Amino acid sequence: MRYLTAGESHGKELTTIIEGVPAQLPLTKEDINESLLRRQKGHGRGKRMQIEKDLVDITSGVRHGYTLGSPISLVVKNDDYKHWTDIMGEDPLTEDVKLRRVVTRPRPGHADLNGALKYGHRDMRNVLERSSARETAARVAAGAVAKTMLKQLGIEICGYVKEIGGIRAREIDLPIRERQTISEQSPVRTLDKEIEQQMMDKIDQTKKDGDSIGGVAEVYVEGMPAGIGSYVHYDRKLDSRITGAVVSINAFKGAEIGIGFEAAHKYGSEVHDEIAWNEERGFYRKTNRLGGFEGGMTTGMPIVVKGVMKPIPTLYKPLQSVDIETKEPFNASIERSDACAVPAASVVMEHVVAFELAKAILEQFPNDRFPVLKEAIEAYREEVRCF
Ligand SMILES: Cc1cc2nc3c(=O)[nH]c(=O)nc-3n(C[C@H](O)[C@H](O)[C@H](O)COP(=O)(O)O)c2cc1C
Ligand SMILES: C=C(O[C@@H]1CC(C(=O)O)=C[C@@H](OP(=O)(O)O)[C@H]1O)C(=O)O
């Protein structure tokens, strides 16, 4: 299974094409819309999210609520496009618009300058339109299809916020359903009610100061069978695929599995999870410090992945940069931006991880027809339990 996305931030629409989804998987647009709307929520976002109402149109690959096995295309309209037709439409730019709206001032921390150097664009709008995290709506749409498949295979996934601007959530051990409900109700999508208000205050203060903040999101998965992924080749190691997918999200700078970087200063006896066995579960680990992975394969324990998001680069508080035409230094000033998008990004992270998990499952089991896949996974789970 693979996917491509297309679309500019202020263009007409975003398109996602997913290839390799098995036939006969029950799939409706409500499954996808729920995810899209969740991505739009979260304290700290700017005015753009009040303009958009992300709803999907499934334009191919699904009939009467079931996938066909053919490519699935998903379209999400940009409601903001109507305000940008002179700049983003098909007609040539008028001189007046050129003077007013050509972007020659790169923002530190965004893709503007590198993209201009690479593709030779002197109007950096040609870069920022595609480098914008608006594209994450299209990725969430793909992930929602993957999540729908995983759910029907008994695999549940949830993303939430662990830290915003230095305010950390406590470690709270909850079953997946509670994680889903609690994070959903939280305006900052955290599981820790006690620090929720502090996180919001921090975001509000940062916004007042014209600055931005980042944080840490976590994704938790229950129900993945042991032995998904492989140790035999570098590009089949599922932990590396997942962390790669996390770092591919706009503004994500790192990812860790389980205790991650903490392992650097602990003894082996404090890190590795002891193996146990009982009739009901088969083999399991007594603890889960390694976050559900050993040797690039799932252990059957919950998967725990964290991702760190840097602060948003577009700041009201100006940072120094240099105009690419005049070569004069200037202080960047902006019209609108998110102050903190970690809550929204936790939803994006949930969906990119879901896609990688679903893809790994489809590589390992019969993947043409969903009912056959489901049976094969059930048989495999039983085989592993009785091993
Ligand atoms: C959900 C989400 C919303 C974002 N919103 C903004 C924004 O409003 N302004 C901005 O400058 N960057 C925003 N970003 C981050 C930029 O897209 C990102 O920093 C940029 O593409 C450069 O990529 P890099 O930070 O990964 O190097 C957002 C990221 C995410 C995941
Ligand atoms: C549109 C989304 O996020 C955008 C991501 C983004 C960026 O530079 O990454 C910049 C902002 O866009 P605008 O300049 O139009 O206000 C965010 O709103 C979205 O998440 O759907």
From TrEMBL:
Reaction(s) catalysed (UniProt annotation): 5-O-(1-carboxyvinyl)-3-phosphoshikimate = chorismate + phosphate
Gene Ontology MF terms: chorismate synthase activity; FMN binding
Binding-site list for NADP(+): R39, R45
One cellular-component annotation, GO: cytosol
EC supergroup of this enzyme: lyase
Family annotation (SUPFAM superfamilies): Chorismate synthase, AroC (SSF103263)
One GO biological process term: chorismate biosynthetic process
Cofactors required: FMNH2
Pathway field: Metabolic intermediate biosynthesis; chorismate biosynthesis; chorismate from D-erythrose 4-phosphate and phosphoenolpyruvate: step 7/7
Domain of life: Bacteria
EC number: 4.2.3.5
Keywords: Amino-acid biosynthesis, Aromatic amino acid biosynthesis, FAD, Flavoprotein, FMN, Lyase, NADP
Binding site for FMN: R130, S131, S132, N250, A251, G295, K310, P311, I312, P313, T314, R336
Entry-linked CDD domains: Chorismate_synthase
Cofactor binding summary note: Reduced FMN (FMNH(2)).
Family stated for the protein in its record: Belongs to the chorismate synthase family.
NCBIfam families (alphabetical): aroC (TIGR00033), PRK05382.1 (NF003793)
PANTHER family: CHORISMATE SYNTHASE (PTHR21085:SF0)
Role this protein plays: This reaction introduces a second double bond into the aromatic ring system.
Subunit structure and binding partners: Homotetramer.
Name recorded for this polypeptide: Chorismate synthase
Gene this chain is encoded by: aroC
